[in-house]
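On clarity, I found the account of how folds are encoded harder to follow than it need be. An entry of this sort, consisting of the sequence and the corresponding backbone structure tokens, reads as follows:
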Amino acid sequence: MLIGNVGKEPEIRYMDQGVCVASVLLATTERGYKLQSGAEVPDRTEWHNVVLWRGLAETVEKYVHKGDKLYIEGKIHTRSYDDRNGVKRYVTEIWADAMEMLTPKSVAQPQPQPSQAPTSAAQPNEAPF
């Protein structure tokens, strides 16, 4: 279980047969504190690669943006690959089973500017019919 902030715009791709996959970079922060000796321990931020599939990925594609706060439940997956130089690299990812968006809608969706009048509203001097 992780609660964190999206560090950059999610990457969306579609696999064979239209399966949607989203990759999200999630930052979690452990707050710093002061020791009894007076020494301060600074905040510590960890970055997590989160992979979401199918319906969750489609939700991410539509609604999740950089800076949003997310709650993620999932499993840790580690995989390896050989890079261009033949060096074996390891990647640890969180494969999400559940996600909840924690950013309030008023923050997540910008409201129209006051200068923009709704198109269906009648003008003050016009008859309502």
